[in-house]
Design brief:
Layout (H helix, E strand, L loop, with lengths): L15 H7 L6 H7 L2 H8 L4 E5 L5 H8 L3 E6 L2 H10 L4 E4 L13 E7 L8 H12 L2 E12 L11 E2 L14 E6 L8 E4 L3 H10 L2 E7 L20 E8 L2
Parallel strand pairs: 1-2, 1-4, 2-3, 4-5
Antiparallel strand pairs: 5-10, 6-7, 7-8, 9-10
The structure holds S-adenosylmethionine.
């Protein structure tokens, strides 16, 4: 497969069964590590309370930001995910958008843009760069963009919430390749197709989108949590990038 040039890829979240199953996910087990440090990270790098949740899905991450006191708009490309987000949070603001169409959102007005797991499903380097460029027009001059994504290692190990052992081909994945992973925690046991990208190539994406990495976090479990960890105390399943616009 050509690096970053795959086009035969469809968003697995455009699917009623998957959307319903995803909406039942909470903040426990492996997902606990994705969200655990976000309140501290967000408080450290942002001022102001206007947030955009890019790829809000069924609204788990949007409601999370709301509980931190952020006025949050959730946007997503999937009709199904947005439908359920609205059902779960009728008072919330959720919009279905076409890919990269941020025309209904005000420029330079968000203190924080959170993207939680969204870029795991966005193919090609070019599309990622284009989306980051457009997202960066929406943040305030001192605003931060937090990109929470799967670490490359998630696709080659076992986890409290995920399995990848049936997909040995993940071991050979290069940037742009499809990698497969099954979420054990939900009823829908069909594999999820993600797009692999190395950390080096993420750095290139940010540079080309005129963003700089302020900080990169790789959250590990301490072992004291009430979960049966598999690799989480030694290998970080997630990577959290804090990004700002280059000045
Ligand atoms: C794994 S879900 C994460 C949902 C949510 N952020 C959470 O933490 O529960 C990823 C979401 O990104 C959305 N997505 C993928 N590509 C997108 C795009 N180009 N624009 C907006 N949303 C997108 C998918 O439809 C899906 O709902």
């Amino acid at each position: 497969m050509t690096k970053g040039n795959k086009t035969d890829f469809s968003n697995v979240y455009e699917d009623t069964i998957r959307a319903e199953a995803y909406s039942r996910l909470t903040f426990d087990k492996t997902y606990y590590l994705a969200y655990r440090d976000l309140p501290t990270i967000i408080a450290r790098y942002t001022k102001g309370k206007n947030a955009l949740d890019f790829g809000c899905g069924t609204g788990r991450s949007t409601r999370f930001l709301q509980t931190l006191g952020y006025r949050t708009i959730g946007i997503d490309i999937s009709e199904e995910m947005i439908r359920i987000a609205r059902q779960l949070d009728p008072a919330g603001e959720y919009h279905r958008i076409d890919d990269g169409d941020f025309s209904r959102l005000p420029c330079a007005s968000f203190d924080l843009i959170l993207s939680a797991f969204t870029f795991d499903n966005i193919p090609t380097m070019e599309r990622k760069i284009r989306l980051f460029r457009r997202l960066s027009t929406l943040i305030t001059p001192n605003g931060a963009l937090i990109n929470l994504v799967s670490s490359p290692e998630i696709y080659t190990h076992e986890w409290a919430s995920f399995t990848t052992k049936d997909f040995p081909e993940n071991n050979k994945a290069k940037t742009g390749d499809i990698v497969r992973i099954i979420t054990i925690d939900i009823a829908d046991k069909r594999p999820c197709d993600d797009i692999y990208i190395s950390e080096e190539d993420y750095a290139t994406v940010y540079t080309k989108a005129s963003l700089r990495i302020i900080k990169k976090y790789k959250p590990l479990a301490t072992g004291k949590e009430p979960y049966q960890w598999v690799n989480e105390t030694q290998i970080a399943p997630w990577t959290i990038y804090v990004l700002r616009k280059k000045t």
